[in-house]
Amino acid sequence: MFRVDRIANSIQPLAARTFSELGLRERSHLQEWIAKYPSCLGEELLIIQKEFAGFSDTQERLDLLALDKEGRLVIIENKLDDTGRDVTWQALKYASYCASLKTESICSIYQEHLQRTGQAGVAAELIADFLEVGDLAEVTLNRGLTQRIMLIAANFRKEVTSTVIWLMNFRLQVQCFKVTPWSMGDELFLNVEQIIPVKDTQEFVIGLADKAQDEVQTTSADAHRHSVRREFWTELLKAMQGRSELYRNISPGTATWIGAGSGVRGIGFNFSAAGRYGRAELYIDRGEQEENKYVFDWLHDRRETMQAAFGGKLDWERLDHRRASRIKAEIETNIYDPTEWPRMIEFMADAMVRMERAMRDPLRTIAPELKARQSGTELVAELQEPDS
């Protein structure tokens, strides 16, 4: 590895080091680095526990437990300069222990981690935000036998790599990452390189009959929910015709929400429905938390005028622990009970028409300011780019 000296137009070699000679430790250094920046492993991961020891009849601890964007558990085992001979067997044991964890247990594990590390938020909501779903009740975490394993070390013994490659033939999802510390003077660098890639995700069967049966039942329930939601959205969209042009070109889907643009980027008029509620909302997510909260606060300062135009009280949810914010009108109901649909549809359609009317002028007012802020941000970023 080399450091580029742009002034001298040359490169300078970095020195490959070992963790032991640098005095770096597995738990207090390598593990913490990955926990704080899990995307160094090439994808978005949500760390839900460190030093997880929630296994019955054993005192063993796995290094890091995470969720990927598909809701699968990821077992992360870290070693420093050498993997040792037994790391594969150790990781397989942890994966088997975690195979029985269900959504409720995973939320409890993550909530305990949040409390222990002094982080704010509700685990179920943070997981839903990470998975980009409206309600965690609509997904199932740790489905079937989909657990993944990531092995991280400076050097991998042949018996480890050959075992991993053999296991991959049975569709076990394993990745190996080689980590190498480098130095130049007092500066330290870390290179993370995936040396054994995982194959395309596919289910495989090795046992756990009860969990497999749960998977069959869950899959059937999911198909039913998708069908119900598509039918509900079809009826709701029919009810919107003649009331508003907002949803004229929107098609029904199977998700828990459908949305229409407001004319301002990242701000949408959304319908959302689940087993406990139905709502019409203005959803604010322009990609940056700070900007979302600015828009919310700007609208909130004018809430009396907007609520008067709406003809009732709105729920203002800044959602400080999440990136987005929303303003909503909500009714307690159940989308999976068709007898509730007439009441739900009438409430949601009427609320959306009144919300669009109340928000139209404020959004037109703030739109030029948001464009100016975006242009200013882009200009600053352009000026900060190094010369090519």
Automatic annotation (TrEMBL):
InterPro entries: DUF4268, tRNA_endonuc-like_dom_sf. Residues 228-361 form the DUF4268 domain. It holds the Pfam family DUF4268. Gene3D superfamilies: 3.40.1350.10. This is DUF4268 domain-containing protein. GO terms for molecular function: nucleic acid binding. It comes from the Bacteria.
